[in-house]
Amino acid sequence: MIRSSLAAAVVSGLGVLSLGNPAAHAAVPSGLIAHRAVYDLELKDASDRSGIAGMFGRMVYEFEGSDCTGFTTNFRFVTQIDTGDSTRVSDQQTTTFEDLAKRVFRFETKSYTDSQLDKDVRGAATDDQKGIKVDLTQPHSKQIELIQSRFPTEHMLDIIRNAKLGKNFFEAQVFDGSDDGDKPLIATTVVGKQETPATDDPDADKAGAFAKTAFWPVSVAYFNEKSTGDAIPVYRMSFKLYENGITRDLTMDYGDFVLTGKLTKLEVLDTKACQ
Asked: N or C, fewer C-beta in 10 Å, the chain?
């Protein structure tokens, strides 16, 4: 399962769209712009233990909102998996809402296999005196107290802020409502030096008006909260990040298999300025 904390800055949709002058598009006060991105997914590597003979798919990410109204993310991750003996289609659909000022995060994720619902996780997280409080409504109603954690958009803004400061390594507790929505993860982020696209950059041309804009190479590894020593991450993702929150050229490492995600379409959406 892809971490939805990174989903909010990574996606686009089908085909190439000319975006004109990027400076002409309204940006939310945080600097993030509303956009819809589509990525084509391919299997890069798989161990014998994974049981995967082939895999491909598509990821669509839509990010809208502002500092005053909150940010909404709609994310869909569909893959066809060939095990050699059979083929199945996995479909994850996630919707989140995050209010930066009020520190409120709502999430809903539905996971399907061959159109059959496997899991439905819904809930909301808010600040509490000791950390954050999570109210789950699906699959069961319960309340959970967790340590203080960053929410997805906050974490993306942290990455951009640290990148601008030249701080190339930092760690944070992140809660994004993924999996069973009942635990945060430790996110270890490495940010490389800002660079401009090379002539052979695989999907830079699909970024439209941002095709020649500078980006940071970023890698984020997620560990279980109680991991110690030389722990193995449960998931690792690398991508090229623009200052406005758009990402491309993804690599998603699940341990037993690795996927790549190439940007195929980017559409900048209208954003209303805060009143």
From this structure: C
Tokens of 190: 């490495």
> Which stretches within the chain are classed as H helix?
4-7, 152-165
For 160-178, what is each residue's pLDDT tens digit? 999 999 999 999 999 999 8
3-state secondary structure of 161: helix
How would you write 7-31 as a 3-class SS string? HCCCCECCCCCCCCCHHHCCCCCCC
Instruction: Let me know if residue 22 belongs to a domain.
Output: no
Phi, psi of 16 (to 5 degrees): -110, 135
**Cis peptide leading into 29, omega within 30 of 0?**
no
> Could you tell me which of 270, 271, 267, 272 has the C-alpha nearest to residue 19?
267
Residues 2, 77: Cα–Cα separation, whole Å: 8
Residue 127 lies in a domain: yes
Global pTM value: 0.86
